[in-house]
């Protein structure tokens, strides 16, 4: 039996985690219970289920959730487990159904999860308490979040601090232009640790580094940083921002952050040539070299440009495997092939994520060595240190 408490207690601040945190099955199960089943999880955008009966599935750690829209327009999150004998109800990743029917014995449920019929169940059968398990759902400018907990941490602090800041992007009037999922043969924490820091950007991401100022040591592009507030204001974005908040979230699950930074000279957005790849979002006034990092919940990140938003979601699938789900959001009125070219839109973060997949998997292979010992972080890895400290607080008794 793994002594998780001792591992947490013996962690050396400023150093990476012990090997067991990236390999051990008991630690993985505690992570699922204490983090993933308690945090607010981004599952998709409401444009993905525009009509009554539309649904898509969200999968995480052996759980499957049906995201539906009912006839009244409300969105529901239903655990994809029939209340008869436990079969999956929806087998396709997305679709449209007037009624959700279990393929095993044909128990049927309405779009809000209520049990409608159960063949041969008898006249005294109580359908009232046999609906699909419902999860908590919150929307933020069209972004759909769910929480598995019976009594989840409040979403209100997230909404309070981000609703106004995100409003200019008009994400409630956006749509998903593309989705991609990248399987990673590595523990989920290695993927998050990698995302949090840009110390690796110059050696690993030349495409990103020639356009984004975060790839450079602090102060290298000071003139761009000096005018960032002026650029942000002229575009029509909120100048009221706050920095990374793993360290001071109210509780596990409502972490949030919002921070602007400049792109390098000649780049108006995150594209190969720096030129726009889609029409302006929402209420934004013109193109400028501004990027914005947003975090909502423990494990979902967004990179917002003035013409598109890229969402990053890290999902555990086993102690030593995970996946990175990415979606690209554009103005809902934009037409593919006319207003944007899909290949140009996704190029940067596709090539970057493929490179990340490689270096994260290499990292896992090194950690698997009998000779691995935790190493020290450097200054540019401060956000990763914050993540590790937060993670250990989640895991301690």
How many E strands? 16
Rg: 22 Å
Strand ordering within the main sheet: 1-10-9-4-3-2-5
On the 0 to 100 scale, the average pLDDT is: 94
Shape: globular
Give the secondary structure arrangement, pairings included.
Elements: H1 4-9, H2 25-36, E1 41-45, E2 54-60, E3 63-69, E4 75-79, E5 94-96, E6 100-101, E7 108-109, E8 115-117, E9 134-140, E10 143-147, H3 156-166, E11 174-184, H4 188-196, H5 201-204, H6 206-209, H7 222-226, H8 228-235, E12 256-262, E13 290-296, E14 300-304, E15 309-318, E16 321-331, H9 342-367, H10 382-395
Antiparallel strand pairs: 1-10, 2-3, 2-5, 3-4, 4-9, 6-7, 7-8, 9-10, 11-16, 12-13, 13-14, 14-15, 15-16
Summarize the structure.
By secondary structure, the chain is an alpha+beta fold. 25% of the residues lie in helices and 24% in strands.
Word description of this protein:
Helix 4 crosses helix 9 (342-367) and helix 4 (188-196) runs antiparallel to helix 10 (382-395). The model has no long low-confidence stretch (mean pLDDT 94). 25% of the residues lie in helices and 24% in strands. The strands form three sheets. The chain has a seven-stranded antiparallel sheet with strand order 1-10-9-4-3-2-5, with no helix packed on it. Strands 11-16-15-14-13-12 form a six-stranded antiparallel sheet, sandwiched between helices. The chain is α+β, with helices and mostly antiparallel strands. Strand 13 (290-296) and strand 14 form a beta hairpin. It contains ten helices and 16 strands. The protein is globular and about 75 Å long.
């Amino acid at each position: 039996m793994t002594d998780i408490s001792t591992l947490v207690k013996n962690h050396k601040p400023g150093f990476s985690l012990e090997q067991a945190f990236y390999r051990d099955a008991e630690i993985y199960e505690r992570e699922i219970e204490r983090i993933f089943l308690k945090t607010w999880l981004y599952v998709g955008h409401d444009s993905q289920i525009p009509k009554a009966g539309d649904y898509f599935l969200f999968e995480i750690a052996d759980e499957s959730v049906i995201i539906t829209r009912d006839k009244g327009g409300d969105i529901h999150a239903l655990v994809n487990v029939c209340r008869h004998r436990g079969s999956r109800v929806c087998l396709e990743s997305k679709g449209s159904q007037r009624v959700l029917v279990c393929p095993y014995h044909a128990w049927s449920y309405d779009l809000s999860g209520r049990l409608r019929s159960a063949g041969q169940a008898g006249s005294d059968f109580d359908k009232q308490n046999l609906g699909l398990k419902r999860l908590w759902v919150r929307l933020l400018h069209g972004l759909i979040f769910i929480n598995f907990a019976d009594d989840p941490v409040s979403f209100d602090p997230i909404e309070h601090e981000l609703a106004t800041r995100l409003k200019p992007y008009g994400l409630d009037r956006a749509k998903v232009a593309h989705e991609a999922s990248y399987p990673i043969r590595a523990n989920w924490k290695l993927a998050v640790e990698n995302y949090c820091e840009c110390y690796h950007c110059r050696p690993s991401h030349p495409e990103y580094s020639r356009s984004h100022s975060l790839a450079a040591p602090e102060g290298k592009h000071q003139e761009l940083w000096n005018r960032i507030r002026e650029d942000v204001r002229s575009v029509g974005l909120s100048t009221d921002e706050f920095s990374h908040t793993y360290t001071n979230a109210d509780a596990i699950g409502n972490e949030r952050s919002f921070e602007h930074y400049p792109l390098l000279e000649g780049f108006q957005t995150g594209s190969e040539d720096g030129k726009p790849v889609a029409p302006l979002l929402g209420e934004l006034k013109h193109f400028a070299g501004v990027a914005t990092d947003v975090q909502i919940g423990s494990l979902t990140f967004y990179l917002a440009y003035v013409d598109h938003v890229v969402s990053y979601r890290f999902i555990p699938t086993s102690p030593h495997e995970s996946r990175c789900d990415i979606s690209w959001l554009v103005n809902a009125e934009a037409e593919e092939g006319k207003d944007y070219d899909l290949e140009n839109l996704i190029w940067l973060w596709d090539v970057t994520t493929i490179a990340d997949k490689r270096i994260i998997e290499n990292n896992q292979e090194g950690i698997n060595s009998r000779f691995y010992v935790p190493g020290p972080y450097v200054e540019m890895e401060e956000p990763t240190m914050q993540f590790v400290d937060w993670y250990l607080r989640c895991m301690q008794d």
